[in-house]
Task: inverse folding
């Protein structure tokens, strides 16, 4: 492979591309869509973050403004938590519109995360959303296929292919040159996207950026470039393999529809079919059943709690729970919370594993469909993927558990065992509980979770490059 | 000659592949629809059993105070899916089909969601609606993009011209042959759907059939129009595909983006905040404040008065009630906003056949937003009904045993029927007529040449 030759071919392809009158029009249309998508992403991030920050502050103030009261009242007063958006979510909406935005946290109960955009949608949302990542994932490949479908076949039809090959240009050089030429055309759109993304990202994160975030962004941008090159190389190869330009165009259109529209839906449906998941009712019933087995704090004759009571009375050498040096009710509730949270966690873990088994069909399908690989990796980097969804739930449950146990602790320490004694504690204790802060996952964790997507992308690159040097030996000039 | 032409067409590779592809996708979608309906039925059956067990267990545990028992007891209202929703799952996988509520605060229970894998929601359901709306147009495109141009490009056009048949008649026949195949496929799939999903033969089904027939006709009219320009096969194919991408992928995303930006719903978060504060702050207030508000809402309960300092369920349920009352303004605003969204989408949909068909299909199948809003409304009434049923018993402190608990079985919601035929079909009829008219005009001028 001679770089000089490749450069010449690439430049030639660039010139040919722009000679087609449809190309500037298409580029302009996609460009306008990108601008709209960027604007919409920016606005949604801005609006949602403003709303959610405002209400989070309100919730915090209300929490602090509670007067003196029984800590268990506070545990039921609870907390409202709102999902925070990652600054990069303006780039890729991922599945965020399908995951709720707010959750009410209280003692003894894990509530659902409610108010997703999908729940507010009339159904139009299900056609897809307009965001930068969608355009880059779906439409740019289409443009690339349009640029590349006749890259070789037109040369063959115009009898110029013979001439090129006679001049000593090898097949790999020719295909590589064409691929780079096409990729260069996509850069007309992609370079502004890169600049705009960096700028918006800086603006939205208030110029307050971490190295980890920077790595995410760079990875995101590289991923898409690689994706475009994979698409371009595939298009050029299909063009070389096709007898006519028309056949090549039909093949590429078929590939696009299959890989981007039909296959992702089909494999996900297959996954969902293979691994049925419980309804909320079945889930809650299962949790409840386990809870009854472990000990039911509501049942006055429950053996588990009776045993605890006996052992407490023995240890402290007292005759009744009223004589214990701490509040007995608080102790029992802390025990109940520990048991129920553990059981819930176990069931939640199983549920998420089942969801992941469903998703694995699509994850493995990424080896057949680079679109799926890019889609998954991109939303993971933008903090809008499946792992962010489970991560938020985990952090929220952790916060809920700590809140409940903190209140139980306060009850044990400060509330009298005697019903006529002090049943209130000072409101100064409320400030001791920190506010909820969602911490985004580190890039390392994303790598681990998205190993399959990354492997699929690299696999595609490798296979196409190997094909470039092997299969081309059998190509004919006519 | 036409029979021969038809034979040639259906024996062609492209036709066979397209037919097999659609049938595979179609039957897969029916399996998915069947599975979806079965799961929903199972959930409903479980709900009925669970409610009974739940009530008898709690009645046994908390048999001393009716007020305490009703703190726990939950009653379910079911929005059973229609068999048609197996054909168009719509928003049914996002919105729950069962709501179980206790008689405390409603606003805290009204928006709970079912468990679902967000990846499944994101990628969407492969239901028959998807096959009809996305995939059928593709085979129409494959079948028709070159019906005219293949003759000129293949050199057979002049042969046709010198024969006795009218070229336009020939074109019509070719179009008709393709329509026969496409509609036969649609009929096969719909008949299978009726059998597999046990769809009742009623007026709603007729509406679905009319809608889908017109939707497919829209794609035929569109390609008829594009073909009538008499451009090359390649040009036609690209135009039709561009139309497909524009209509099925791009315009809906724009409309969605517009609606979610133009009608944001901060009311949702406001509702939960107000409800929580409205109820909880009453614990720290003078009881008479709560009671006065409660009596203002329900004058008929003024006869129940608080006496003494001890805890009374009357006060507790009054506090719960005020939580709802304080949030009422916001939850109403939220509902209004969603209705507005629904209205706007339907209006925009009139001009966009793909959107119109999907939204109408959801409506007919009871899997759209309209159905969900009606259900939510009915949950509100159901909750109110249960409250009013139990309030006197609680306030009078009647014993738990005085109520026949076994009579509280699961209740069902049925959306009011009613098809607005004109809004359903007219938009598609107008667009089809327009496109065919334009095509006819083009071809008429061509004959004059």
Result:
């Amino acid at each position: 492979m001679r770089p000089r030759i490749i450069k010449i071919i690439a430049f030639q392809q660039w010139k040919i591309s722009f000679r087609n009158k449809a190309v500037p029009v298409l580029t302009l249309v996609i460009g306008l869509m990108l601008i709209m998508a960027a604007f919409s992403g920016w606005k949604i991030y801005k609006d949602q973050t403003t709303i959610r920050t405002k209400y989070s502050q309100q919730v915090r103030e209300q929490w602090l403004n509670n007067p003196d009261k029984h800590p268990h009242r506070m545990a039921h007063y609870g907390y409202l938590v709102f999902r925070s958006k990652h600054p990069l979510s303006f780039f890729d909406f991922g599945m965020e519109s399908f995951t709720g935005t707010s959750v009410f946290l209280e003692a003894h109960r894990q509530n659902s995360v409610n108010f997703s955009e999908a729940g507010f949608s009339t159904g139009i949302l299900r056609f897809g959303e307009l965001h930068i990542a969608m355009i880059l994932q779906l439409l740019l490949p289409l443009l690339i296929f349009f640029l590349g479908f006749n890259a070789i076949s037109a040369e063959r039809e115009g009898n110029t292919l013979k001439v090129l090959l006679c001049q000593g240009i090898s097949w790999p050089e020719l295909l590589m040159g064409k691929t780079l030429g096409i990729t260069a055309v996509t850069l007309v759109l992609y370079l502004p996207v890169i600049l705009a993304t960096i700028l918006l990202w800086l603006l939205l994160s208030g110029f307050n950026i971490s190295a980890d975030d920077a790595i995410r962004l760079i990875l995101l941008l590289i991923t898409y470039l690689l994706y475009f090159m994979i698409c371009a190389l595939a298009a050029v190869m299909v063009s070389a393999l096709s007898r006519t330009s028309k056949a090549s165009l039909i093949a590429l259109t078929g590939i696009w529809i299959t890989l981007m529209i039909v296959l992702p839906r089909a494999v996900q449906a297959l996954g969902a079919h293979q691994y049925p998941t419980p309804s909320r009712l079945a889930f809650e019933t299962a949790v409840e059943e386990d809870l009854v087995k472990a000990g039911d704090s509501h049942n006055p004759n429950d053996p588990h709690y009776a045993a605890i009571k006996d052992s407490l009375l023995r240890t402290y050498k007292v005759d009744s729970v009223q004589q214990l040096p701490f509040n007995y009710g608080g102790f029992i509730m802390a025990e109940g919370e520990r048991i129920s949270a553990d059981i819930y966690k176990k069931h939640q873990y199983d549920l998420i594993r089942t969801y992941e088994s469903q998703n694995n069909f699509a994850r493995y399908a990424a080896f057949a469909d680079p679109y799926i690989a890019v889609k998954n990796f991109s939303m993971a980097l933008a903090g809008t993927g499946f792992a962010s969804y489970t991560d938020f739930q985990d952090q929220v449950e952790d916060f809920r558990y700590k809140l409940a146990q903190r209140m139980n602790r306060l009850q044990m320490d400060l509330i009298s065992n005697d019903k006529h004694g002090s049943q209130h504690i000072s409101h100064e204790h409320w400030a001791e509980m920190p506010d909820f802060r969602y911490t985004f996952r580190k890039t390392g964790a994303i790598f681990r979770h998205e190993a399959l997507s990354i492997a699929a992308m690299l696999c595609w690159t490798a296979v196409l490059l190997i094909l470039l040097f092997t299969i081309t030996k059998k190509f004919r000039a006519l | 000659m036409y029979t021969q032409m038809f034979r040639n067409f259906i024996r062609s590779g492209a036709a066979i592949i397209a037919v097999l592809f659609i049938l595979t996708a179609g039957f897969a979608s029916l399996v998915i629809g069947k599975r979806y309906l079965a799961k929903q039925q199972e959930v409903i059956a479980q709900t009925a059993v669970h409610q009974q067990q739940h009530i008898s267990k709690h009645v046994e545990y908390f048999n001393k105070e009716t007020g305490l028992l009703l703190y726990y007891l939950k009653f379910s209202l079911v929005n059973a899916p229609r068999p048609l929703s197996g054909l168009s799952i719509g928003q049914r996988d996002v919105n729950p089909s069962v709501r179980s509520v206790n008689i405390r605060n409603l606003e805290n229970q009204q928006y709970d969601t079912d468990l679902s894998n967000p990846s499944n929601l994101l990628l969407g359901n492969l239901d028959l609606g998807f096959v009809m709306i996305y995939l059928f147009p593709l085979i129409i495109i494959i079948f028709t993009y070159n019906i005219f141009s293949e003759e000129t490009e293949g050199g057979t056009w002049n042969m046709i011209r010198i024969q006795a048949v009218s070229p336009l008649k020939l074109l019509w026949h070719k179009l008709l042959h393709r329509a026969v195949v496409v509609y036969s496929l649609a009929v096969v799939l719909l008949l299978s759907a009726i059998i597999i999903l046990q769809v009742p033969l009623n007026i709603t089904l007729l509406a679905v059939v009319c809608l889908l027939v017109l939707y497919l006709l829209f794609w035929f009219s569109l390609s008829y129009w594009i073909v009538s320009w008499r451009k090359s096969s390649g040009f036609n194919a690209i135009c039709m595909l561009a139309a497909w991408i524009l209509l099925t992928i791009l315009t809906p995303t724009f409309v969605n983006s517009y609606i979610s930006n133009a009608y944001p719903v901060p009311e949702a978060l406001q509702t939960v905040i107000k409800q929580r504060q409205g109820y909880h702050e009453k614990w720290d207030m003078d009881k008479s404040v709560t009671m006065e508000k409660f009596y203002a809402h329900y004058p008929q309960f003024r006869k129940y008065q608080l006496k003494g300092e001890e805890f009374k369920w009357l006060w507790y349920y009054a506090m719960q009630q005020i939580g709802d009352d304080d949030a009422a303004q916001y939850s109403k605003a939220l509902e209004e906003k969603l209705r507005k969204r629904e209205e706007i989408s339907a209006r925009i949909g009139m001009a966009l056949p793909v959107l119109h068909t999907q939204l109408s299909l959801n409506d007919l199948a009871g899997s759209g937003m309209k159905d969900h809003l009606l259900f939510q409304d009915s949950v509100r009434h159901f909750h109110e009904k249960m409250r009013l049923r139990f309030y006197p018993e609680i306030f009078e402190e009647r014993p738990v045993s005085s109520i026949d608990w076994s009579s509280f079985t699961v209740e069902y919601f049925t959306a009011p029927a009613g098809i607005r035929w004109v809004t359903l079909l007219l938009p598609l009829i107008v667009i089809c007529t327009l496109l065919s008219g334009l095509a006819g005009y083009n071809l008429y001028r061509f004959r004059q040449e």
